[in-house]
């Protein structure tokens, strides 16, 4: 039996796409974007986003073009952007589609329906946003969307869920 220090089937670094490698090294906090009501709810784990201050403040995100979330966001025009913590890894993986969630990811945990969409009850920091439809652009393999921050709730500061180089990491102070 051989013990490998790395995954034996991983593509060697020198053969990987350098742009994806650069993006992976930047890393970022993990958010969950959700939209819709009832059976029409959709969500997506998003770590490629930024918040711009101003009057009004805005959030810009890169979303998967075939995601149910993008479709629901464009249909309803609103969404909830929740910041995830270290204890939310399972939720993040389920909404990213990398972990099974029997019955769907909305069965994981409790949810509160807001006027912008569903929000995980465990999420203390979140925002209700309204899509600025004129700002939708195809960017690389993603769709860039911009939304106005209409409602912001800031909860206690806790350990943010950080994703970097394909894995979750503890944030550094």
TrEMBL record:
InterPro entries: Flavin_Rdtase-like_dom, Split_barrel_FMN-bd. It is an enzyme of class 1 (oxidoreductase). Keywords: Oxidoreductase. Pfam families: Flavin_Reduct. Transmembrane segments: none annotated. Gene3D superfamilies: Electron Transport, Fmn-binding Protein, Chain A. Its EC number is 1.5.1.-. Residues 23-170 form the Flavin reductase like domain. GO terms for molecular function: oxidoreductase activity. This is Flavin reductase family protein. The lineage of its organism: Bacteria, Bacillati, Actinomycetota, Actinomycetes, Micrococcales.
